[in-house]
Design goal:
The complex is a heterodimer of chains A (539) and B (330). Chain A is 29% helix and 17% strand. Chain A contains 18 helices and 22 strands. Chain B is an alpha/beta fold and 330 residues long. Chain B has an eight-stranded mixed beta sheet, with helices on both faces. Chains A and B meet through strand 1, helix 17 and helix 18 of A and helix 1, strand 2 and helix 9 of B. The complex binds flavin-adenine dinucleotide, thiamine diphosphate, iron/sulfur cluster (3 copies) and magnesium ion.
């Protein structure tokens, strides 16, 4: 070809110049661990299911959720959501209302009759689960999904454990509880109710392994001198009777002794049963109360009275005698010797619960510590093949932890039945707030859940906190920052001055073209969610 | 201005694209089939704002003109790093002549197209701040004054970068360059010098003038699009950080550009026929210090004993911009 004057070379493309050789650091796509997921005791992949909810695909969101937790409708109501305390959005405006979206998905699944994936074919192994509380149910669910035969035995009339016989209806309506439990039944888990197990060694006959989750149902007592006519009850018994016993007779003035969630539940129940006055006596201060703040606020709204820094000393016909306390320099309450008498028709003790471990009496090599059963990191007791979880093992005693234990135990039982050891996948690095570029997120205040009128709460057991609608559930889901996990915002693809990011198409994310990437780090700096990491090049 | 109401949350329209956003609301840069007018393999520094700005602007112009586009380029980094003989990074018809004559060359191309009856082919001239505000200024003013059918884009990196960071009339006060060293009683570039070419362009009463920043892609593309709907002389002045000349980290290029906007030092506005028609509100107002601190060309203002007086004078410039361009009006 004849070339123009003074031109000796054919024109070429700069693609011949591989600028990738300039690089000292290379960008890599990573999936970091969102702080919410890290904080969830049930081990949910929250960011993962919110991702589908953000796109309006509620079915897939629900499916991703129930991979880890079979009870979204229950969790969305009773879980104390430590995920939200950890949520990165909390540092921006307010945490994502994870529990509200979770509940929305759970309720939707119930309305639509969604079922989780088909369990694997029936395996030869059979597992006995003792206790149909959240821990036992969760374990049974996961074992069943893995294809094992599962029998749940419970001494109670109905399944659910403390979710039925502890948590009041106004926080967890029973149709919701029933719907999520019946889904587990429909998967082929056998329930044997009204049957108490007194000797686990004998009951194990015909089973290859057992998971114990008998909870903690024995009320802790304290010695309170009481006159003949005085009425002293246990919180757990009272709440149990609310479910299937004669309605408890409490009278017009009720004093509840204790500072936990159970005390609040009893006081609020008493109010609904017609008590004119429902008063909680607690030996420390409001700030030290272990009860969850939102529940405390709801109780205050409902007119529950509180007497802080006081202990109950005695009870007789006329009422209870309390002693005033003061905090010492270590923050511990000390008696003052000052007494006060207050009118009361009944006194309810909500001082905590202990586990009834009689069924373990014939297990030779069992380790028990502070009234709870010791388990190793596989949730197995010191007796091979007997696993345990929930309130009966050392834990923070919540529905969520119980569900988490059940899942973890199921994975370990499954491995144990195959003579293997379950090895949990390595945890990703946490997507802390410092890894985020929050410039890109638009402002969006949290969606408030509607609450039942105060007037109606006084007399009915209707649910207090309402759910989100489809529209505001979508809004709430989209408030998620997708911490540590690509949400396909196209920023990296856009900001690379060297076109070294390849867009692979919807749902397929992106790849780097290391022939041209100069390693400037702009993509990593401008990724809103911290899904790109710069790593040193090995030279 | 892309005054798109935010219909969903998470990132709204602040990111380049987003799987949840309607296709029409995503940028050209989010499109897998964008032109990549400036292709890979160019020799721009790591994190070059000018390379990025040029691709942003030209890809948008290519889409707006259905790929009927010719560009004339002044001498400068953009020309040098994209076309070392015999290679080119340009995937559009592109022509380079001299340092100071890009506007005239573009005028000539537009005239030729007119004679040939190819007025659907549009013409862009582009150059650095030196080539635009200094040596090419007479040609540019002539192009404006004659209302030639050219969009002139200035990539402002605030100095003559290609030849080693010499001061231009777009270099900001106090900035250290090779010719305004950080020495003496008043280190860096002098206050009270320089010129504002977007305002001078407006004084020509040409149909369209705008400022833009690589830190705001949606806004930048909207302005290029608008410019391509208009015939006659148009001018867009794009702020493009230079990691080498400014002494900023390559990965901070967009952060620096963002802070220039959010501090008020680089106001984003547009004007038609000499009148300002819109300006972009600050989203997260920042003090000038946040901007200056990321750049070594201003490092003499900080350290052991920060030069509070000079920083205050720069803050005063930002405050005046905020006032003048209504950057905080509701
Ligand atoms: C009033 C109250 C309110 C609460 N509110 C909340 C809340 O809002 N959120 C939260 O996260 N947690 C709450 N908790 C705690 C939570 O309910 C428990 O941590 C959780 O239920 C423990 O689950 P689990 O499966 O270990 O045991 P449980 O739920 O206690 O279930 C144990 C089951 O085992 C059965 N069982 C026991 N012994 C035998 C036996 N020998 N043979 C056969 N069956 C047996 C019992 O009948 C029972 O059904 C609350 C607790 C109470 C008491
Ligand atoms: C007439 C003439 N004088 C000087 C030069 C040398 N020269 C080439 S590029 C350049 C500086 C370009 O600065 P600017 O226009 O700001 O672009 P940048 O490189 O900063 O992008 C100079 C001085 C030249 N090419 N022609
Ligand atoms: S913003 Fe989303 S991913 Fe991040 S912590 Fe909160 S819920 Fe989890
Ligand atoms: S922006 Fe481009 S060149 Fe810079 S590190 Fe990322 S891929 Fe590499
Ligand atoms: S910048 Fe956006 S598209 Fe790229 S990895 Fe991060 S979230 Fe994904
Ligand atoms: Mg320059």
């Amino acid at each position: 070809m004849k070339k123009p004057f003074a031109i000796t070379l054919d024109p070429g493309s700069s693609l011949a110049n591989h600028t990738g050789s300039w690089r000292t650091e290379r960008p890599v796509y990573v999936d970091r661990l969102p702080p919410c997921n890290h904080a969830c005791p049930a081990g949910e992949d929250i960011q993962g299911w919110l991702y589908h909810a953000e796109g309006g695909d509620y079915r897939r969101a629900w499916e991703a959720l129930v991979k880890h937790n079979p009870f979204p409708a229950i969790m969305g109501r009773v879980c104390y959501h430590p995920c939200e305390d950890a949520c990165n959005r909390g540092k921006l405006d307010e945490a994502v209302g994870i529990h509200a979206v979770e509940r929305f998905l759970g309720d939707l699944a119930i309305r639509r009759g969604w079922l989780p994936g088909k369990p694997a074919g029936p395996g030869a192994k059979r597992v006995l689960v003792v206790g149909s509380g959240p821990s036992g149910l969760s374990c049974a669910y996961h074992l069943r999904l893995m294809g094992h035969g599962v029998v749940i035995v419970d001494s109670a009339k109905a399944a659910g454990g403390m979710m039925r016989y502890g948590i009041p209806k106004y926080r967890l309506p029973r149709d919701v509880l029933d719907a999520e439990i019946s889904r587990i039944e429909s998967m082929g888990v056998e329930f044997r109710l009204n049957s108490r197990i007194d000797d686990i060694m004998a009951a194990m006959a015909g089973f290859d392994a057992a998971f114990l989750a008998v909870g903690a149902h024995l009320a802790r007592r304290t010695d309170i001198p009481a006159g003949d006519a005085s009425r002293i009850l246990d919180a757990v018994c009272l709440l149990h009777d609310m479910e299937d016993g004669p309605p408890p007779m409490l009278g017009r003035r009720v004093v509840v002794y204790g500072g936990g969630n159970t005390a609040l539940d009893v006081a609020r129940t008493a109010k609904r049963l017609g008590a004119l006055e429902s008063l909680i006596v607690y030996r420390r201060t409001k700030e030290q109360m272990p009860a969850h703040e939102s529940e405390l606020n709801e109780a205050l709204q409902e007119g529950i009275l509180f007497k802080w820094l006081s202990t109950v000393k005695a009870m007789d016909e006329g009422g209870v005698t309390v002693e005033k306390m003061v905090l010492d320099e270590t923050g511990f309450p000390q008696p003052t010797g000052e007494f006060e008498k207050m009118e009361a028709d009944s006194l309810v003790l909500a001082l905590g619960q202990e586990s009834e471990l009689g069924l373990l009496k014939n297990v030779p090599d069992l380790e028990i510590e502070n009234g709870t059963v010791k388990v190793n990191s596989s949730m197995m007791t010191s007796h091979p093949g007997i696993f345990a979880g929930g309130d009966m093992v050392p834990s923070d005693r919540t529905v969520t932890s119980a569900v988490g234990h059940g899942k973890k135990a199921a994975k370990n039982i499954d491995a144990w039945l195959r003579n293997e050891t379950y090895i949990a996948p390595e945890k990703h690095e946490i997507a802390g707030f410092d890894k985020m570029n929050t410039w890109y997120y638009s402002d969006a205040p949290r969606t408030v859940q509607p609450e039942l009128d105060i007037a109606r709460r006084g007399s009915t057991f209707d649910e207090v906190v309402g759910g989100l609608t489809g529209k505001n559930a979508l809004f709430e889901a989209r408030r998620c920052l997708s911490c540590g996990n690509c949400f396909e915002c196209d920023n990296c693809f856009g900001v690379c001055p060297d076109n070294a990011v390849i867009k692979l198409g919807p749902g397929l994310r992106f790849a780097f073209d290391y022939d041209y990437c100069k390693g400037c780090g702009l993509c990593a700096a401008e990724c809103p969610c911290g899904a790109i990491k710069m790593v040193p090049e090995s030279i | 201005m892309p005054l798109q109401p935010i219909k969903f949350y998470q990132t709204g329209t602040f990111t380049v694209g987003n799987r949840l956003l309607d296709e029409s609301q995503r940028t050209v840069q989010a499109n897998m089939r964008r032109t990549n007018s400036l292709n890979s393999g160019h020799r721009a520094c790591q994190g070059c704002g000018e390379a990025l700005g040029a691709r942003y602007a030209l890809d948008a112009a290519m889409q707006a003109t259905k790929n009927r586009l010719i560009a004339a380029n002044a001498t400068g980094c953009l020309e040098v790093f994209s076309t070392p003989y015999p290679e080119t990074s340009w995937q559009i018809p592109w022509m380079h002549s001299l340092f100071g004559n890009a506007a005239s060359v573009a005028t000539g191309i537009a005239a030729a197209l007119k004679v040939k009856g190819k007025q659907d082919v549009r013409v862009i001239a582009q150059g650095g701040d030196g080539g635009t505000t200094d040596i090419g200024f007479a040609c540019l003013s002539g192009m404006f004054e004659r209302n030639d059918d050219v969009l002139y884009i200035c990539y402002d990196n605030e100095a003559y970068m290609n030849t080693g960071v010499q001061r231009s009339s777009a270099t900001p006060p106090a900035a250290r360059t090779a010719t305004t060293p950080a020495a003496g009683a008043h280190p860096g570039n002098s206050f009270g010098t320089g010129k504002n070419v977007p305002l001078i362009a407006m004084a020509h009463r040409i149909p369209f003038v705008a400022t833009a920043s690589v830190a705001n892609l949606h806004d930048l593309e909207a302005k290029v699009n608008k410019a391509m709907t208009i015939h006659g002389a148009r001018y867009i002045h794009i702020h493009v950080p230079c990691p080498l000349g400014w002494g900023s980290h390559p990965s901070d290029t967009l952060k620096v550009a963002r802070l220039a906007v959010e501090s008020g030092l680089f106001p984003l506005f547009e004007a038609e026929h000499g009148e300002i028609t819109a300006s972009l509100r600050l989203r997260k107002k920042a003090p000038v210090e946040a901007y200056l601190k990321l750049q070594r060309r201003f490092s003499h203002l900080f350290g052991e004993k920060p030069d509070r007086d000079t920083i205050a004078m720069i803050q005063a410039i930002a405050d005046r911009n905020i006032e003048k361009f209504g950057l905080e009006s509701p």
